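To whoever is on call:

I kicked off a structure prediction for a single chain this morning and the downstream step that reads the tokens threw a length-mismatch warning. I double-checked the sequence; it's 440 residues and nothing unusual in it as far as I can see. Pasting both halves so you can look.
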Amino acid sequence: MIHNISRYLLTLVALLAMTTGAWAEETATITLTSGQTVKTYEDVTLPWSTTADILKAVVTDIKFNININAISGGDGKVVKYGNENFTVTGTFSGEATITVTYNMGSSATITVTAPAPVIEPGTVTLNDTKTEATMEMPASDVTVSYELVRDLTVGVDLNLFIDQQPVTRACIARVGNSSYQLQGNWQFAAIDKLDAQNPVSLTNGELVYTLKKKDGDGYVAVNTETDLAPGLWRLEATAKEDKPYDGTIYSADIELYAVYDLYLSPAQDENVSVTANDKAVSPDAEGKISEVESGKTVKLNVTNADYIIRKATVKGATVSYKVESQFTNGNNYGASTDLKTVLESTDLPVTIKLSDAISFPWNDESAKITSIELQSWGSDPAKLSEYSMDGKYVVNPGDVTITFNSLIGVTSDTAVLWVYFDHDGSGQTNQYEIKLSMNQ
């Protein structure tokens, strides 16, 4: 089967290797060694033959009767020339060993090396689309190596699959009070349709998948294990370097939506019908309607002409707190205050003013809050409760606030908040313990 070349990419091909050709003029650096004597002949054009003077320069005590007895090694590129000389016909790896006799009984060994010159790799240039590789032909035989890999940007679909079906909308929900999670049997997958009859799902480690959140005109990577949230997202897939693919592809925008439970009070009424998620729904015996999508319209319709709705209200999550004990160095200042203020809000953030919760037993204007520290509340306290202190605060009234920006990550009902203070400006630190409780 012949495929359109546009579906493949050329990877970088820069390996050029020198080969021997009949037309090529080969040069070499030849080194002759005998005992401690070394002679080097550079840029010699091959074939290259010795002379009597060359041999005498290497075997310095030669006077007469030179005879070459044996030649070994050199890949057959060192051959006997006449009776007294040898010829190097080409470059070779390793060494050649030549045994000579002379002066009626003397003998010597000559080691010959003629390595092939190192040819630097040529430069191969790829065009921007990686469909064309070009180079300038050097003055030698060369081998050009290349590799074709699959172009991800052509004929590959990228989708989020829920229950084996590609989707552009997906439900997310919290498990308990933890962060959002995708619901259903979900999978990220790129489908290679090069062979339309046998599409391939690239889910075996060929690609790196990333889900990114839409932010303005772009998309940003977030920790999807903790920061998944309703909104528009996009799936990206990038080929791993050791796999036969190249490029990065993107899915269409994916809308993630959250669902919540809605409770009716009274729970059931035959004179009222309910519409949620664009369809008629029936509350259970407790008035619960499960998995109502955020942003969808909920309607209560009176079905009996004898009745009208006098009023309808909605109550969201509540945040409550109280000072359970206040002390410093083991001693209470005044009576323990038991205050409880419930803030009802359908939207976060919720801000609590600590001066409403703490009654201080002194009026020294030099007293001030020095720091606030949340000791425990969920796996990531810093995310769910961010507190702010604008400068130095006088304890009376002491306008110090703690703001709950998110309920995600709350895994317990209570948290201990330590408020450190200097009650008289002496620098001695005392503390309040405030127990916070939250109801959702």
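Update from on-call: the warning came from a stale cache, not from the record. Cleared it. Sanity check on the structure: The chain has a mean pLDDT of 75.
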